[in-house]
Amino acid sequence: MRTISTTLKLTNRFSPQGNIIYITTENTLPSQLVLSEDEENYVNQQKNVLKNELIMLNRYSHWIYLLFPKSAKSEYVLLENLRKLAAKVGDHANQNGLTSLQITGEETNTACILAVAEGILLNNYQFIQYRSDAEAKINSLTEISVVSDKLDQNDITRISVTSQATLWARDLVNEPVNKLNAIELAEKISETIRAAGGKAEVLNLQKIEALKMGGLLAVNKGSIDPPTFTILEWKPDHAVNPNPVVLVGKGVVYDSGGYSLKPGSSMETMKCDMAGGATVSAIVYAVASLKLPIHLIALIPATDNRLVGNAYVPGDIITMMDGTTVEVLNTDAEGRLILADALSYAKKYNPMLVLNFATLTGSAGRAIGAQGIVAMQSDARDFYDSLAESGHAVHERLVEFPMWDEYKEQIKSKIADLKNIGGTEAGAITAGKFLEHFTNYPFIHFDIASPAFLEKADSYRGLGGTGIGVRLVFDFLKKFASV
Ligand code: BES
Ligand code: ZN
Ligand code: ZN
User: Where are the extended beta strands (E) located within 250-365?
Assistant: First the structure.
């Protein structure tokens, strides 16, 4: 694992000569700050007349950043505003070659301070190691200290680890397939999870054949690299859940569409098609590193979807691991085929809950864009509601789509049990219904096709892989573990 270059630490006293961020939610000037008359006039003008939420003072030996977030509809909206303001401070600090920042906020609650720290850590991510000028381009900012006597070390460790996990997921997504095929992905994930204290096992082609994972094998026929099926586990002694939570993540290391070849530029971003696998791996990493008392398993079926001589073609009928037959009418609807086998495999754990993460359909993105996650649940209403609340807390919001049975009509085949496409309407839902067919447990599916990968940088979510879903599920599991 590439280590995060920014460190976060807790101190109880700040150095007045260092760069400092003051968070003020009360609209008053921080009492610790002594300003000259000119500075005070400037700040009041910026704050009261121009309504600026971020005010910067250049003290030549150091910078002072004052955050005056506008009043918000809810605490969650305020926290997100602070993450974004923090990202702006981080950018400014890097542009000015600053190496360290202190964060404080006397009258502010601890969640606000942590949101600022998180915004800076996530914003400071770069994926530049393939550039010859990487050394010159690297961010100067390396040290963040939180100055507070209300926070404890656990809070700081939690924010560092969940940020680090998110950035690791981004790294895995940003690596192209010529640097990370299915085998390399499985190895990289396993190494990191073992180092964090979890277990990792990788099923190879022979085992996948022996298990008759017909979906994964069909998609893999067009590849010159073998598929993998990675199983991760974190099983602490005093887990709060007798039955495990199982995470399933789509690991298509590259999606060309296969014979149903993707048109034009839509193929350019398809290294991101293993983002679900990256997300679930990073969740296990965070949970194991922080030793949450939750029994957790992750399953990551992985292959590329390409077209060599013997690739699967539209019209093929395949038999899935659980015996279901599927008429393949579009080789670009490959994600549901490899996930179906993983969802069948999950039954053997008798799971409390299964969470599936996948860049599954363009349809999800057309419906809601990259501002949230399309999610569907069956038999998991309470878990879903709790996840939706976490979605607001970490600003990875869920939009629930229905799992109505009428949609299943669209994926019935005349010559097999199912077909792998459901027509032009409701594509994200018919994909979800396809997956649901292979489940017999409380199930939630997250279609992250749009928010998993951004072609234009967006504040602390950055450019490229976002690592979406990691902070969401961590927040949910942490709250679940403490009840
Ligand atoms: N990997 C794609 C979905 C995707 C689209 C991910 C855009 C990220 C950004 C998936 O395998 C796919 O191609 N889905 C098809 C399904 C269709 C053929 C039923 C789609 O959405 O077009
Ligand atoms: Zn596809
Ligand atoms: Zn795909």
Answer: 251-255, 296-305, 317-319, 325-327, 353-358
What spacing in Å lies between the alpha carbon of 223 and ligand 3's midpoint?
Answer: 14
Q: Whose CA is nearest to atom 18 of ligand 1?
A: 333
User: Which burial class, exposed, middle or buried, applies to 123 when counting CB atoms under 10 A from its CB (0-12, 13-18, 19+)?
Assistant: buried
The pLDDT of residue 261: 98
C-beta of residue 210 within 8 angstroms of C-beta of residue 225: no
Asked if the model's pLDDT at residue 378 lies above 70, the reply is yes
Say if CB 158 and CB 448 are below 8 A apart. Answer: no
Contact predicate 106/73, CB 8 Å:
no
136 vs 15, residue with greater confidence: 136
Out of 14-18, 128-132, 377-381, 430-434, least confident range: 14-18
The residue type found at 381 is: R
Which ligand is closest to the CA of 269, given by its number?
Answer: 1
pLDDT-derived band at 2, boundaries 50, 70, 90 = low
8 Å CB contact between 401 and 407? no
Which pLDDT value is given to residue 32?
84
What confidence score (pLDDT) does residue 27 get? 78
The answer to whether the CB of 146 falls within 8 A of the CB of 103 is: yes
Nearest ligand to the CA atom of 272: 1
| Mutation pick for ligand 1 pocket among 173, 177, 254, 255 (CB with most ligand atoms within 8 Å) | 255
Ranges of beta strands (E only) in 267-352 are 296-305, 317-319, 325-327
Work out the pLDDT band at 1, boundaries 50, 70, 90: low
Q: Are 247 and 349 in contact (CB under 8 A)?
A: no
Buried b or exposed e, range 214-251, using 16+ CB within 10 angstroms = bbbbbbbbbbebbbbbbbbbbebeebebeebbbbbbbb
| C-alpha 380: how far from chain center | 21
The full set of domains in the chain, from first to last, is 7-151 (3.40.220.10), 162-481 (3.40.630.10)
The tens digit of pLDDT for each residue in 249-272 reads: 999 999 999 999 999 999 999 999
